[in-house]
Amino acid sequence: MKLPRSILLPLFLLSACEAPTVPAWTERGRRPPTTDTSPPASSDREAEGPTAPPAATPALPRRAGVVFVHGTGDAGDTKDLVCSGAGDAYKCVVEGPVRDYWTQANVDSVRQRADGSMRPFAVIGCPLGSNAPWSNPSPAKRTAGSPSGAEPGTADCVAAQARRFLDGPDGKQGTDDDISDVAIVTHSGGSNVVRYLLTQRTKSADFARVHAAAKRVVAIAPPTRGTYLANYMFRKGSLGNTLNGVIAMLGGSGFYDDDGVAFIQTTEMDASNRDPARFAAVSADVAGVPMYVASGAAATVSIFESVSRCAGNLEADALAVLHTTFLSASDPATYRNACSDGFITCTSAMATASGGARVVFGRTDDGTVVGKAKFRNHNQSRRSCDGVDLDVRAAVDGAGMPRLDGGAAGGAAGSFAADVIRPRALTPGVEHLGAEPTLTSEVPAPSAEPTPRRVTSRVSRVAAGPGRSIRVAVVDREAHVVVSSERGAERVSAESGEIRIDGGRTGAEVEIVEAARPVEISAEVSTPTAFVGERAAVTVAVSDDGRPLAPRALRGAARSPSGRTVALAAERGPRDTWIMHTSLGPDAEPGVWHATFDAEGADVEGRPYQRTVEVAFVVAVPVARVEAIGASRAGRAIVVRAVTSAASRAHLGLRAVLECAGGRRREAQVSFVAEPGGREVELRFESPCGAAEGFSVGDAALVDHDAAATLTYLPSVATTNLR
């Protein structure tokens, strides 16, 4: 049955942004080949006492390369990767993304060295549209080839392909043709896959290998805080969601309605960004690897400027329509701020911008525009449009960072360390890690979450005398009053708010009234993960210009991944908050749940309001927990020991952050396979703090790598010895 154009057009506008290079329905059900996800093994176990240093090995030549990771869409699988060539001509590519996504000309420009020669490169192709970065027991679409419905994570596919590239032309690790250093260039949704891979670097040998080789990530248009367009496609009742349902009823496959898009809903990204089992945090450094960001600032279409038509007329038109229809609003809850590239808002793309210090091109939240951002819409930012390739090449080369090929590039080197440490043997009779690795890296101080600028009531008056005209313009969130005359123009600016003009005749006064900040409702999940059979709770607060309000009515409901709805009960919480909660039964569905809250009442001036907010949280099966944990000095090292218990076999990770009294911070994590019963696990920080320097350990988490869920989270760890 052929669908009418009136139905297909809105969905085409969405698909024009990031059309999969291989149709999604031809890839559905295909899995990457099984890879060994166990941590690197060792044949020896140390006796009680100091660790012997590993034997020295001859240094191998260092060779640098570039890895390209495409955006949301299905573009092949691990079996499609083909490696060929040697030396600078060495490459590993999936042909579809080279031909249809990046273009060979753009790839060649980005991988060019300062002397004109070319770096080896890899172009990844994975099912980033069908699957999320992590394994998913409750996918949006059940696959025919998987009776359980569970899907693998695309990070496994990306890591497997990147590791094959790192092994060099001979396909063997440890030989002199290995690629030792890489810059990873991502576009759109590919950045989240790489963020997860680097953050969960102990999940598998492939993850650890890629992390060790990564020198920097250049993330173009990354949906770090998600995109409202994903919200729209999955919101029941929206045109996109309804049309996808109609297409499914007719036996077809919808557009942007699978797990690769579902997880970049703004609510789900909020949950994932604070989950230690996924992204852990929003930071300019990902597990010690510096991250550069880039994004267009407007999806502009102009028949008078040919640069705005680069990368396709139809694509440019579609992105402009998407920006105007969905993203041009100012809505902090969904990270819209009237600035986008047609697919990703500037606020989401620039979340890791580190105050603008690592912006390749784009517009930061304070309005600063870096580089030629105007005509770089979502499609153009992955092509050689308006010098995009030259800007990305400069970031790959590492302005202000160590060059990939050795030497410095105009600045101090960034801090990065990946130490492999053999822990000492632990308590006799307790299974322990032996020589499995603890990976540590420098981590920056946590980035402050952006907060909306508070607007206070204020009145300004501008006198317009004879011969002058008055014009009021609103640009983004700023109101401009322009008083013009033959002698020029005078402009008065004010923060955004409600604008009222009294009069308007020549000689009249213009009065700008800035409205007070509107009533806000906020919701915060106390922990990223709730467990089947236990209580799930969300803290809700309502305020007017920072002053707490008691709503007349507060309702809440939680929606499971399959759409089942559960009502939430309300009880008073601390400091003018409410706790919305429910008990999850033993049959509760694992996966990401969405909780929606509606508040009604009157603001501080007695005006009625009605506000809605949505948050997401993860529901998991409690396979293990931390029974006891403590941190102590052991010679020059600081050791964190945890006693864990597991109900079933699982692939787990333990991570923590150490902060020295002098301000230096290091993160460490280790993975292990838990069997039913108890086990002691150890993390070691080697000589990070001075002998007399105080320290604290916090942000400790036991994570389930198989389900990408946090099992235990502890904001602080007692300084004690468990023995």
What does this structure look like?
The strands form seven sheets. Strands 1, 2, 3, 4, 5, 6, 7, 8, 11 and 12 form a ten-stranded mixed sheet that branches. A hairpin with a 4-residue loop joins strand 33 and strand 34 (709-717). The chain has 14 helices and 34 strands. The model is unreliable at 1-13, 19-59, 406-437 and 446-516 (pLDDT under 50). 17% of the residues lie in helices and 31% in strands.
Q: What percent strand? A: 25-35%
Number of E strands: 34
Tell me the number of helical segments per DSSP (H or I, 4 or more residues long): 14
Tell me the radius of gyration.
27 Å
Unreliable stretches covering 5 or more consecutive residues: 1-13, 19-59, 406-437, 446-516
Dominant shape: globular
* N-C termini distance: 71 Å
**What is the residue-mean pLDDT, rounded to a whole number?**
77
Kindly state the percentage of residues in helix.
10-25%
Structural class of the helices, strands and pairings? alpha+beta
Question: What's the gist of this structure?
Answer:
The chain is α+β, with helices and mostly antiparallel strands and 723 residues long. α5 crosses α7. It is globular and about 65 Å long.
Keywords:
34 strands; alpha+beta; 10-stranded mixed β-sheet; 14 helices; single chain; 723 residues
Secondary-structure map:
Layout: H1 5-15, H2 24-27, E1 64-69, E2 82-84, E3 91-93, H3 95-102, H4 104-110, E4 121-123, H5 154-166, E5 181-187, H6 190-199, H7 205-213, E6 214-220, H8 228-234, H9 239-249, H10 259-262, H11 266-273, E7 285-286, E8 289-294, H12 313-327, E9 330-331, E10 336-337, H13 346-349, E11 359-363, E12 369-370, H14 388-397, E13 439-442, E14 459-463, E15 469-475, E16 478-485, E17 488-495, E18 509-513, E19 519-525, E20 529-531, E21 535-544, E22 547-548, E23 553-559, E24 565-572, E25 578-583, E26 591-602, E27 608-620, E28 624-634, E29 637-646, E30 650-660, E31 665-674, E32 677-686, E33 695-704, E34 709-717
Helix pairs in contact: 1-9, 4-14, 5-6, 5-7
